[in-house]
Amino acid sequence: MDDDRIIDLFLARDEAAIKESAIKYGHALRRIANNILSDRETAAECENDTYFKAWESIPPNEPRHYLFAFLARIIRFTAINRLRENLRKTRDIVFVELSEEIETCLPAPGTVEDEIDGKELSRTISAFLRDLNEEKRNIFIRRYWYMDSVKVIASYCHVTEGKVKSTLFRVRCDLKAYLEKEGYCL
Q1: Is the domain defined by 3-90 classed in CATH 1.10.1740?
Q2: CA 160 to chain centre
Q3: Nearest residue to 140 (alpha-carbon basis) of 183, 178, 109
Q4: Would the pTM of this model clear 0.85, i.e. be above it?
Q5: What fold characterizes domain 95-181?
Q6: Which secondary-structure segment (H or E) carries 101?
Q7: Where are the domains positioned within the chain?
Q8: What is the pLDDT of residue 105?
Q9: Residue 116: C-alpha distances to residues 13, 109, 121, 128 (Å)
Q10: pLDDT tens-digit series, residues 68-110
């Protein structure tokens, strides 16, 4: 079923919207959550939470042309929040590793002004990513948005793991330089 029809079901408050969303995007959504949490059961719980949050968010939102991105954003933040809860009890190495990789090229939040500038930073990073070629952009997004492993990215992009690692390193360096040029203090 196409996204427009699924959104119409959400707007009509028809529970079939959840079923159709799960059929079309469930596997990909669970993979995002599982990449973050490394726990299939909790990933499935996050998927269910995502459909509930989408049910509450549509309307007023009508993500007709970006339903997957809308759901992916919800599940990503749901999984990260669940991971933060788990991290209070114990530290998760994968999440810490990814955070350390990317933090060298992003300004650290610390003040209210930094938080206010978060949206501008997001637009700046989006502009940077739009200027990358498709392969570099896909590798970067798969690593830092979907939290795929280097091995999975290499398979997805049909390149070697070494190429993925070097591409990620170069893109992080380029992002850091771009942000500094845009006036961000790193």
Answers
A1: yes
A2: 23
A3: 178
A4: no
A5: Arc Repressor Mutant, subunit A (1.10.10)
A6: helix 93-103
A7: 3-90, 95-181
A8: 62
A9: 35, 10, 9, 20
A10: 989 999 999 999 888 888 776 655 555 555 566 666 665 555 5
